[in-house]
Amino acid sequence: MNGVPEDLIVYEIAVVVPKRNLNEENKGYDCVEVLVNEFRNVGLIVERVLGLSDEFIKLAAPLETLGRVAAKMQMKKTTHIGIDLQFEWEDIKAFVRQPDGSLFSWCERFQCYRHLIYEIVNKKNSVVTLKFDGKEIQWEAGESLLQRLELEGIVKQVFPLHDEIKRKKLLRSWALNWWDFTAQPIDEIYAYFGTKIAVYFSFLGMYTRWMIFPATFGLILQLIDFGSLKLLVFPAFFISVVLWAVLFFQFWKRKNSALSARWHLNFSVSTSEGYKLSGREWNSLQPPLELVKNSGIDKTKEKEALQRYEWFGYLKRFRNDVIIILSIICLQLPFELAYAHLYEVLKSDMVKFGLTVVYLLVIQYFTKIGGKISIRLIKHENNENTEYQADSLVYKVFGLYFMQSYIGVFYHALLHRNFMTLRQVLIQRLILYEVLENLVENSLPYLKYSYKKYRAVRNKKKREKGLIGKIQFATRVEKEYLKPTYSASISEELEDGLFDDFLELALQFGMIMMFACAFPLAFAFSALNNIAEMRTDALKLLAMLRRPVPRAAATIGAWLNIFQFLILMSICTNSALLVWLYDQEGKWKLEPGLAAILVMEHVLLLIKFGFSRFVPEEPAWVRAKRMKNATQAQDMCSKQLLRTISGREKAFGGYIRRKKPVGTNKTQ
């Protein structure tokens, strides 16, 4: 099914229920037995596995089952002529397959599974009484069975399963393949994990490859003493780094567009220059469906209601942003400045190191509190969907991390103007933070898994007191159940583990860019760290964690704007560092050197905003393909509309029903 041989069943979803002793006489009324029978009735293949304390219901779906439920869901898929049409199982050959040969992507399959298992409802007009270990459960008419069992605590979890064949293949070709450095099987990652994770690893790989240039330049600056020429070499390094960053993100947009086209994440059909990716509208505020439905004939009231909804949405978001900004200024800023001042006045390096460790531990709790407050505020915003809520959360939480990561460095750089102290702080922040982050990120999942295994074995021995010997987990599905989920450190409901991975990259990028002139060697450290990060993140996803729930977002979202903001900040901070380096006596006179730095800053700002015009965000072949698809769709719609107007067809998208001439015999 879907890219694998037909005789090989791939179980992709697991449902966890408590293990129990079931009498034969109560079997027909048991809620779990009813659930399993309903799974089979909707076309799923079911396998039941007994673990130490739970039972696992593994689910697989034949291609026909997925196809028919996709048609029922009115899922849009790309056809061979490049137009997205509603999927029909009978016209399967008209739709484009995925790069791995499968008909449905992992994200589409997951949506079909969710529809299948959660749309099992009580179709009777009366309440059905089910039983579970002597407890009666009332299954209301029209109610979802799985949701009822989740509310009752009978269904513990529903989670996606790893495909062992594909997982082991990715382990060999990706996670354990250290010799290729930045090469990654992006298409296979997309087929296995979905769009969002594939886009992250594509970004990480391209970012690391592009970092070779500034890393080499920075290494040369660190190893060679240029003497008095450093007043010329450092500005040249600064200019080259800013141009590198601006070019990188322009070319990343091009690559992102190419990936979307290759994975058939097609643009909406439009002949205009503006476009939108499927599943992500560019407008941030969408009026609710009820407001649109309830709009009556009175156009004035309808317009007022929509305008009121729009502006209230903007005001709510502005209010929440003001709350976060004031919290950062009034609460976090004094704490950060106190740490920076203590670090400056302390003499012992060991004490400074210990202070930094304590500070990093304490600030994590502050950030978690800020993240929880941000989540509560976001729930009161008029965001269109979950992805926009996630972007709003990213902006707010990054403000907290921006303050904690950079305010101390700004303190040393701009107030005390101590170059050696600034470099020590940068080394500690880069190396200590990244080493600690990698240790926690890769060891914590294993420790959680080991603890869950220990608890499961201990509970088994408590229930069966006469049990002697070593207890082992015989089934892989139970081992996967005990593994941690790929969740964010701030919010599991809006973000997954990609939040922490992107946050780590953004903080690293800000550190090496904003203080490039002070510590050019940081680019080399970051390049080495990112090479290791690619493999450790891959190993974490494939071996240490459950298979993540796929997300359909085809871009890096809010993180792109954050990276662009950090480029602007780097132009300002490096210009200040060059002024400090040039004017060591602190005269601050507008001499030719200082004037040249100010001119250079303004020129770089103009270049930053002007490069988007010189480097298109779409490759030529993607743009041509998009315009061709839009033209074909327009021609087809025009012909279809003409047939409808002339009465030769029943409906715009329906079956053809041509009118017969008057007087024609029906038997002809």
TrEMBL record:
Localization terms from the record: Membrane
Topology relative to the membrane: Multi-pass membrane protein
A Gene Ontology cellular-component term: membrane
GO molecular function: chloride channel activity
Entry keyword annotation includes Transmembrane: yes
UniProt entry keywords in alphabetical sequence: Membrane, Transmembrane, Transmembrane helix
Span of domain Anoctamin transmembrane: 189-628
Alphabetical list of PANTHER family matching this protein: ANOCTAMIN (PTHR12308:SF73)
Name used for this protein in its record: Anoctamin transmembrane domain-containing protein
